[in-house]
Write a structure and sequence with these properties.
Layout (H helix, E strand, L loop, with lengths): L1 E4 L6 E12 L2 E10 L8 H17 L3 E6 L4 H9 L3 E7 L5 E8 L1
Parallel strand pairs: 3-4
Antiparallel strand pairs: 1-2, 2-3, 4-6, 5-6
The structure holds coenzyme A.
Length: 106
């Protein structure tokens, strides 16, 4: 995960990055993002996740990118949709929790 900071103020915003994740026996690269409560709603997660999407495609050359999201987490699902990851399926995490898998193939 990379640190995300504001260019205008230098404030710490959160983190965003790419990690290998296993879901139901299959490992894919996931884009993950976290934005501090006071910095949410300014498009920072979408901007950072879009940059990670481009890095995964253009630099790492991975065949596909996923996001693993709790079904109740509407903001996170919107971020995934806005960077081009479409809903693929409902699944179960390694902890036994319900998750939604969003994906894009490159
Ligand atoms: C998910 C998260 C990263 C979004 O960060 P953010 O910087 O506020 O996101 P953006 O400003 O880029 O907004 C993305 C979309 O979510 C929507 N959104 C933000 N907060 C929302 C809320 N409470 N309810 C519904 N939609 C919401 C925004 O309106 C935007 O969609 P739109 O363009 O259609 O309006 C942030 O809420 C967060 O850190 N949550 C806790 C950690 C987390 O859940 N991480 C993801 C784990 S899978």
């Amino acid at each position: 995960m990379w640190v995300v900071t504001r260019r205008d103020t230098g404030e710490f915003v959160g983190d965003c990055g790419l990690t290998p994740q296993q879901v139901e026996g299959v490992t894919d690269v996931e884009v993950g993002y976290h934005v501090r409560a006071g910095q949410q709603g300014h498009g920072f997660a979408t901007e950072a996740a879009a940059a990670c999407h481009a890095y995964a495609r253009d630099v790492l050359g991975v065949p596909r990118l996923i996001a693993i999201i709790h079904p109740d987490n509407v903001p996170s699902q919107r971020v995934a949709e806005k960077i081009g990851l479409a809903f693929e399926r409902d699944a179960t995490s390694r902890d036994g929790d319900p998750v939604r898998i969003h994906t894009t193939a490159f």
